[in-house]
Amino acid sequence: MRDDGIITFGGSGLDRAAELRGDPAAIAALAADPAARAMVMWQGKPLTGNPDPAGDGTGPAALAWIGLGHPALEDARSAPILLGRDDDGTPLFAAELDAWEPPDLDAAALGAFADPSEQWHPELTGTGSFVELRRVMTTLSARDAELAATARALFGWHRSHGFCARCGARSEVAQGGWQRLCPACGAHHFPRTDPVVIMLVTRGNRALLGRSPGWPEGMYSCLAGFVEPGETIEAAVRREVHEEVGVRVGRVDYLASQPWPFPASLMIGCHGIAESDEIVRDPAEIEHALWIEREDLAAAFAGDHPTVSPARPGAIARALLRNWLADRRY
């Protein structure tokens, strides 16, 4: 398990080979390289070579890779997406097996807060299983985590943006998977990333936490919300906190960010200084909110608090809170 203060999906210095995306011949040459590898996904779940059998995020995990000629890729409706080049120059791709459906699929598990199910493809026996990314994200290497987050976000975007937003015609994959092109009107569409502010709000020795309906019992996290058009990050922090719990925030400082491919957000971590105490929650957004003393938060991280559990491992909220407890800057 990596330190809670480290931002999962925080980047690994991957060479994304962006200069080659507009060159079909160059992409074909990379794909033809005998060393080229593909990570494989199904329903946003990466093929993981050694998933944690306990499902509690404490065991090792690593992406499983296959060659671009592997028979399992016959279950992919689209060509693999170019992710970039590894440090040794190895071309890295991603493929989604969207034409395959596992037998005896538990559809309810796929929509669970933390999907515990695994799926095994008949052509990938002995290679790995498809595992929910949130289950294993904290045990992946920084490189694997960046690749998995990138692939999941891109495949999710392709699934939901198959038609041109300008004219309604079916669009086509272009630029090695990093663009969609409309053959009818010529419009170019690019992967979507939604900015979300997530804020560590403090007042003296206390931090403001909330929980949403449907979360695991006792789990609390930092407040968060989408940045609206025409709004600064600082204004979004102040608006969201006041809308959700009625607390007014003054000074706002940027701390860190995290790509969050569930489905397509960039979490912008901020620190806000509260100027009021009274909590007046919006029941449609927040099930419960509270101020927690630093000592009580430390007990929650240690598993010794009777009612509060901190945000899940891997979430930026956990890193924000952990670093505040440790008086540590990013």
From TrEMBL:
UniProt KW keywords: Hydrolase, Magnesium, Metal-binding, NAD
InterPro entries: NAD-cap_RNA_hydrolase_NudC, NADH_PPase-like_N, NudC-like_C, NUDIX_hydrolase-like_dom_sf, NUDIX_hydrolase_CS, NUDIX_hydrolase_dom, Znr_NADH_PPase
EC number from the UniProt entry: 3.6.1.22
Keyword Cell wall biogenesis/degradation: no
Matching Pfam families: NUDIX, NUDIX-like, Zn_ribbon_NUD
Cofactor(s) this protein cannot do without: Mg(2+); Zn(2+)
One Gene Ontology cellular component: cytosol
One GO biological process term: NAD+ catabolic process
Protein name as it appears in the record: NAD(+) diphosphatase
Species: Roseivivax marinus
Lineage, top ranks: Bacteria, Pseudomonadati, Pseudomonadota, Alphaproteobacteria, Rhodobacterales
